[in-house]
Amino acid sequence: LFIVGALANLGEAAALPDIIDCIRGRSVSFITRVAGLLLDFQSSFIALYPELEPRRDPEITELLVEYTRLAPTKSFYPYLLALFREADTDARIRRKAFDCLVEHYPFALNPADHLDNGDPEIARRACLALGERPGTANARILLSAARNGGGDARENAILGLSRMIARSPRAFRYLVGVLREDIDGPDSPALYDVLAHRIDYFLLKRDDFHVAVTERIVRNGLSRGRVSDLIAFLNKNRDLSVEDRLVRAIQPGLSDRTIGLDELRMYLKYEILQKLGLSPLPVPTRRINEKNERVGRLPFVALLALVSAAFPAFLLARLLRAPGAPSFADAL
């Protein structure tokens, strides 16, 4: 990499083929660093692109995709699209190409077309990409995916909607409006999962609708074991009237079968647990597995042993090379 850096510092376009040749057989991290160095040759590299584009060597593909991520230009977009669509493209490269397309070429690819992609990771990224594009149409698409999908598909859609309302107050108001139209409608379970992140908004309002939504968010969280947002809010809250309202909302949903019961008992403040009639549970300590700890120390111990052995040998060699030093046999 030092040699590549030196060639890049020369700024000579003639060095480009040599720099590109040096990536053959190299790691992804090495190629990523080389792509960064090639930014100094932007116009020359783009001129060389037509010669590189037909090649499908893994290293060249990695270099072109990484370079496009760093310096997106029009000339690279068809290449990314082809890589994404080709059946034999490596899964990691396809995902990287997808990310580049949705971020830098938003009109080249519609994430909504890939919510059911055969690659679960691309399906997840498609939901997140829609979440980065707030709007009523995209919110409806994600709501539909949450309503009709199961397992990961539903979770991905909820993640996308959560990202959307974090970015856009208008999208948040739209989802609240959907809930207002039908508080127990087919979209409500997914909406309660999404809006749990904003339970503070509903607690600040005392009208019947917002009180009812608060109760349903709490009930939904308890029934599904999604109580982390509730715990975080209660532990930070300093308004006793808000605390009492939440305690009243939580109590009816508590039983031995409550999925999030242990989490509440481990992480809620003691004073709140007392109000709920719950006893605290100790928080489990996360200890690194001793076997893994030993394995992790092995390379370091081996290095120390090597240094310890090499240092006396180095001193002996220096002594023997000094003028008037005894021979190796005499030294022994």
The oligomerization state is single chain
- Total number of helices: 20
- Secondary structure: number of strands: 0
Percent range for β-strand residues = under 5%
Taking all Cα atoms into account, the compactness measure Rg is 30 Å
Determine the fraction of residues in helical runs and give it as a percent range.
55-70%
Overall 3D form: elongated
Gap between N and C termini? 43 Å
Low-confidence stretches: 300-322, 325-332
What is the string of SSEs from the N terminus onward? Answer: HHHHHHHHHHHHHHHHHHHH
Task: Look at the helices and sheets and give the structural class.
Answer: mainly alpha
Q: What this model shows, in words?
A:
This protein has 332 residues and is mainly alpha-helical. Helix content is 68%, strand content 0%. It has helices at residues 2-10, 16-21, 28-37, 42-52, 58-70, 77-85, 91-104, 120-131, 136-148, 152-167, 169-181, 188-195, 199-203, 208-224, 228-236, 240-250, 261-267, 270-276, 290-321, 328-331. The protein is elongated, with a radius of gyration of 30 Å.
Question: What's the SSE blueprint?
Answer:
Layout (H helix, E strand, L loop, with lengths): L1 H9 L5 H6 L6 H10 L4 H11 L5 H13 L6 H9 L5 H14 L15 H12 L4 H13 L3 H16 L1 H13 L6 H8 L3 H5 L4 H17 L3 H9 L3 H11 L10 H7 L2 H7 L13 H32 L6 H4 L1
